[in-house]
Write a structure and sequence with these properties.
The protein is an alpha+beta fold. The chain is 17% helix and 34% strand.
């Protein structure tokens, strides 16, 4: 047996040929992301009656600086909207594209320096208009505006009364606020149109929702809201809240799984609610080891049964035309990423539109296998094991990949990083340690007070499990992660220096107190149910001391394993000082540390050449210290 041919970093992390396709409201065109001048931009191409491509594709955006990551059709198929920031600073501006123009004509609809759009959606009952949450007036406060897409005119509908408050529309222009109470609870209130007074409609205990209640989606008629609720249960289910009475009615649930919460932290994941163009609810996603979709609409149930025949993967992006007849769908798959199909429900015809990375042979990719690992205190941790193809899975060097958040999760599907390491001969283990979302409240709350404690014990227990199963050589294990995962990598190097042969920290926290003090003003109110509750308040001396004791910067003298640190200079979440300080401190002691800084990136490394540079450097680093090819 032997490993398959060595696959280059460029092949894994080069730009997709096409990705992120959606169908236009009239069903005659698709839009998708594809390279233009080494950046992903939005392209549009006509569809023929059978769902094939018709004519030449046309690039309709012209961003040469940073790849476009998402876009959205409006109700008028003339216009497309997309978000873009500057160098990864996450100050998202909303841009409009005129598809009738001969050349790309992106217009910045929110041209306010330092401001960001956090949400935009069609304005209820008002074609051609969107509601937009924007902090142009005050960086800490998000006001609700209505945008006329064609003219670009912005009209303020509701002004925020303070950080942590947001607004949305109900029926016939009714306005509602979403805010955190002084106790940190999640509250929805109706504004009296005559007096402006707010009247609470519902309150949910904030401690049960570290990252906030999700989803929160107003029903198309504006009389209710669909929310993900765990009230009275460990699992998150879908309920409908009557916006007049506050009464909650269960809409759907799964006996074992939470609603799919991944897009709450990573908006590029598909949303948990599958809705049609009018906003009507078609289905709900749940995620355990794999995804499960519940169809709630009879027509969609018929469509779903046909879509699921197209791929062995999990249904990912879903879009349909206004009639619900023509569909464009993508699939998540561990070995064949992003395969995208056209399906016509009126004829039953389907057509493969594209594979984003056609040069990657699925047979050469490594399967990702769901496994359950039991922590030393009995907590069950749903995890994923990826073993290299073509070699005996015995006594292998291993990469322990730690997800971010920590209120996020690892999931089944194609992971370019895991596939790269498997191709190099490493076993790869991803662990949904305590604190990970999507496995119930008890699993998440088990992380309170356990940063660099039981959360790290979980990772050590996972390494011991892999060694006991015979998969991993315990002397050749590297720990690698981004954001919280970067912090976990630093904890691994500083708190258990004898357990890891190498550590890779990407935009990770080295000083918990400094991290919290440097959060943007608009973020700070939302920290009450996550960082303050789980870690502490740096303004309280005793808690600050405990935070320092749980920070890698306090144990620099114990770091002996080779360390690599990666940082985006414009990171607004984990500021560059977090990496500068740990690197300087480690270097002072003469420990091998590599430091890679991208001046045009933020918390997420996005641009293709930077991804290739980063993973190429990590590849060489791991090869030197783990012995992979």
């Amino acid at each position: 047996m032997a490993l398959p041919a060595r696959i280059s970093v460029e092949d894994f992390f080069g730009a997709p040929e096409r990705a992120g396709a959606t169908i236009s409201p009239d069903g005659t065109r698709i839009a998708y992301l594809a390279p233009w001048k080494d950046r992903l931009n939005v392209w549009v191409q006509d569809l023929d009656p059978a769902g094939g491509f018709d004519g030449e594709p046309r690039c309709v955006t012209a961003d040469e600086t940073r790849s476009v990551q998402s876009y959205q059709w409006t109700d008028d198929p003339r216009w497309l909207l997309y978000l873009q920031d500057s160098g990864g600073d996450e100050n998202w501006h909303l841009f409009r594209v005129d598809l009738d123009a001969a050349e790309p004509t992106a217009v910045d609809l929110t041209p306010f320096p330092g401001a960001r759009v956090v949400d935009f959606e069609p304005s209820r009952g008002r074609p051609g208009r969107m509601t937009v949450s924007l902090n142009a007036r005050d960086a800490a406060e998000f006001d609700l505006h209505e945008l006329d897409v064609a003219t670009g005119e912005l009209t303020m509908l509701a002004q925020s009364s303070g950080a942590g408050e947001a607004w949305f529309q109900g029926r016939e222009g009714e306005l509602f606020s979403i805010s955190l109470t002084a106790e940190g609870d999640f509250e929805v209130s109706r504004r009296d149109p005559e007096t402006g007074d707010l009247h609470p409609v519902l309150v949910h205990e904030g401690a049960d929702y570290p990252v906030g209640v999700f989803p929160t989606q107003v029903t198309p008629d504006g009389t209710g809201m669909w929310i993900g609720s765990s009230r009275g249960t460990d699992r998150t289910r879908l309920v409908r809240v009557d916006l007049s009475t506050g009464e909650e009615t269960e809409v759907d649930s799964h006996p074992s799984f939470d609603i799919d919460l991944r897009s709450q932290v990573f908006p590029t994941f598909p949303p948990p609610l599958i809705r049609d163009r009018r906003g009507e609810l078609l289905g709900v996603r749940y995620t355990g080891g794999r995804q499960v979709v519940h169809a709630l609409d009879p027509h969609f149930a018929e469509v779903l049964a046909e879509l699921e025949k197209l791929s062995e993967g999990d249904l990912s992006a879903v879009s349909c035309d206004d009639s619900g007849r023509r569909w464009v769908v993508g699939f998540t798959h561990d070995r064949d990423p992003g395969v995208t199909w056209f399906y016509d429900h009126s004829t039953g015809e389907s057509r493969l539109l594209f594979r984003p990375h056609p040069h990657l042979d699925p047979e050469a990719m490594a399967p990702m296998t769901p496994v359950t690992i039991t922590a030393r205190d009995g907590l069950e941790m749903p995890s994923y094991l990826t073993l290299p193809v073509g070699v005996e899975p015995e006594n292998l060097p291993m990469v322990l990949m730690v997800h971010g958040g920590p209120w996020a999760r690892d999931n089944w599907g194609f992971n370019g990083s895991a596939q790269l390491w498997a191709n190099r001969g490493y076993a790869v283990l991803q662990v949904n340690f305590r604190g990970s979302s999507g496995f119930g409240k008890a699993h998440m709350k088990a992380a309170i007070g356990e940063f660099a404690g039981k959360m790290h014990d979980d990772l050590i227990d996972a390494v011991d499990w892999a060694a006991a199963q015979g998969y991993a050589d315990p002397e050749r294990v590297a720990i690698l992660g981004g954001s919280y995962g970067g912090y976990a990598a630093l904890v691994g190097a500083a708190f258990t220096p004898d357990r890891f042969a190498a550590a890779v920290d990407v935009v990770g926290i080295s000083d918990l107190a400094n991290f919290m003090r440097t959060q943007p003003a608009f973020v700070r109110p939302s920290l009450v149910n996550n960082w303050y509750r789980y870690v502490g308040d740096p303004a309280v001396p005793e808690q600050e001391a405990d935070m320092l004791a749980r920070s890698p910067i306090s144990r620099v003298d114990r770091i002996t394993a080779p360390l690599m640190v990666v940082q985006g200079a414009n990171d607004a979440r984990v500021v560059k000082a977090e990496s500068d300080n740990i690197v300087a401190s480690v270097r002072e002691r003469g420990v091998d540390v590599e430091y890679l800084v991208f001046d045009d990136e933020g918390h997420a490394i996005v641009n293709t050449e930077n991804l290739i540079t980063m993973f190429g450097a990590i590849d060489r680093f791991l090869s030197r210290h783990l012995g992979g090819r």
